[in-house]
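I can't quite decide. Please look over this sequence plus structure tokens:

:::
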Amino acid sequence: MSSKTKIVVLHMKEIIYTAVFAVLGILLILLLLFMFGPGHKKEASDTEKYMPGMYTSSITLNNTDLEVEVTVDASHINSIRFINLDETVTTMYPLIQPALEEIADQIYQKQSLEDIQYSEENPYTSQVILEAVKTALQKAQKK
């Protein structure tokens, strides 16, 4: 029986370096899995309700078209305004601009179209404006 004995010499420095690099490699892999894993995308998409941009909807009042413009970012309604509101419309419907401002203030605070209070002076105008805003927001919703 002939056995050839091999002697392996390990330096302590090499063992420590190997262990440190192995731990760092495992931490890097875990970090990448945490950052780009499937659970991370679900959390972000839950808070994002809208596709950022400007969306419009039309209101027709006595053969005059008004455009309601709604500007949104990923999760907030930023502005609501009339685009082509001219003097003839404001003369014929003097409460339309104050009604829009009142509704817009409530929507900015709640960031929702639920539980919007109409003023007693112009409930029908407020309903028409709210429907136009709702139509514009439906265009902005993520699918």
About this structure: The radius of gyration is 31 Å. The mean pLDDT is 86.
